[in-house]
Amino acid sequence: MREVLALAGGPRAALAVVLGALTVLSGAALLATSGALITGAAQRPSTLLVLMPLITGVRLFGVARAALRYAERLVTHDVSLRVVARVRGRLLERLTPLAPAALTGARGGELLSRVRTDVDELQGVVARLLVPAGVAVLAGGAAVGLTALVSPATAGVLAVLLLVLGVAVPAAAARAGRRAAVAAALADADVAADTLDLVRGLPDHLSGDGGATALRALDEALLRQEEAERARARLTAVTTACREGVPGLGLVAALWLVGADVAAGTTGPLLLAACALGVLGAFEAVGGLGAAWSAAGGVRAAAERVRALGALRPAVTDPEAPRPLPAGSGLRLEGVGLRYPGAAEAAVAGLDLAVPDGAKVALTGRSGAGKSSVLALALRARDPDTGRVTLGGTDLRDLALDGVRSRLAWSAQAPQVLGGTLAGNLRLGRHDAPDEELTAVLADVGLAGLLADPGLHGWLGEAGERLSAGERARVSLARALLSRADVLLLDEPTAHLDTALSARVLDRLARDPRTVLLVTHDTAALDARWRVVDLDAPHR
Ligand SMILES: Nc1ncnc2c1ncn2[C@@H]1O[C@H](COP(=O)(O)OP(=O)(O)OP(=O)(O)O)[C@@H](O)[C@H]1O
């Protein structure tokens, strides 16, 4: 929250406060001069010229109020949008290095909700907190000072009532509102995450219990969201009642106190209506504070959730002084151990594995033996707890992350295919690959059929849903083949393929001059060009 306030502060925010305070004072002055004008007119002056200054005042303050309000809104929104843009930029800067390992526990919908809804909520820091608070102090102080010139007692009452309406009532409401705001933010995030999970996994939900469990979870989240909204609405009703009632009290007090002065002859009659209506108008100074206090809980909760996201630490970091990238592309794991946070057993324990320059190594072993974890270590998605992983003889931890990843291409077990064209998806491997190369690599992996339908530049559907699992795996493999990396890390690239296709893909990989480390359960398909390493074998 402090970070956001620091971003929001500055001359622009100060200008918004000054414009807001002048708007409030113009409104109060408009009411005061109108009151004085009506009283003056009721006294039937011999010439209207006597009323000219008041008529001019009414016109001036009427126009100024509208113009000042417009300018204040313009500046406030400008500052708000700048804050949101900067927070979102900084957040994305911090999130990017977290991928992939440090984000594995985060739900997609939850992340989306934080990056979008919570950051949007931070717009409120300027428009609903900073500017209203500044306006309340500046305009409230000025109104009390001006009122004291006419009636010090009325000024005292005005000061007390401004504090009641601006501080006491909202503070009490905010205490009650904080819990509701936190509950609402959590419920909103749950609804977003549950909806996204439901939509993404629709076929699985439907083929399980027909979606009943997922719908029940969503229903519960919606109920929590509704209850939180209801609590917030109750609170708004109470604060609205106070917002209407307290200025009325101020008006009555001013009429009473200034009326007594007029009766005693110490104050002119024109000032009675002017002062009473001016006091009524002055309450606009704290008008924004009620909303500010009730928004504070939500804004603080959003700021806290955004901060918590920004505070996540990446699983791997760049070394302070990276060593130059080595020329060789041989990979070695030396006595490597990896235990995932919170796991009872190590996923990889004391592993020695050498994949020399240009070698073709196939990792095999039972499900859960740690094959994908070895690829994650080789890619430096994670660092080993013991031992070291080297590329061309240099510890990966001593190399710049970007450099390491430019040398390694990875095809995941469940690869991501993005909504877009086939060409767009393939060019994630190499952005400047010409169409002819895309066509050739598609033929290499047995995907030439896709050139006819949907075509190189045809739409693959949301998240590539037009492709079968085997086609998705080969699109990912084709990306890796296209890349300029000199080490290919491939996680079960032939898992969904028939025997002939699998043999064809493995042959293409064995002919590739680059270093290849692949994970497979199908060792029967491998010929003599491959060295098979079984992670379950007692003496590897
Ligand atoms: N991100 C993670 N957090 C915690 N535990 C994990 C994580 N990824 C994998 N594991 C655990 O580490 C162990 C090794 O997993 P890994 O995915 O490396 O196995 P695998 O040999 O590739 O399995 P499969 O053949 O089924 O793909 C498993 O027990 C798995 O549950």
Q: How are the strands ordered across the major sheet?
A: 6-7-8-3-9
- Main sheet properties: 5 strands, parallel
Q: Report the top-level CATH class of the largest domain.
A: Mainly Alpha
Beta-strand fraction estimate? 5-15%
CATH topology of the largest domain: ABC transporter transmembrane region fold
The small molecules bound here are: adenosine-5'-triphosphate
Determine the CATH superfamily of the largest domain: ABC transporter type 1, transmembrane domain
| Helix/sheet category | alpha/beta
Give the distance, in angstroms, between the N- and C-terminal Cα atoms: 54 Å
- Rounded to an integer, what's the Rg over CA atoms? 35 Å
What's the count of strands? 9
Helical percent range?
Answer: 55-70%
Instruction: Please give the domain count.
Output: 2
Instruction: Give, in order, the helices and strands.
Output: HHHHHHHHHHEEEHEEHEHHHEHEE
Membrane topology: Multi-pass membrane protein
Keywords: ATP-binding, Membrane, Nucleotide-binding, Transmembrane, Transmembrane helix
InterPro entries: AAA+_ATPase, ABC1_TM_dom, ABC1_TM_sf, ABC_CydC/D, ABC_transporter-like_ATP-bd, ABC_transporter-like_CS, P-loop_NTPase, Type_1_exporter
Subcellular location: Cell membrane
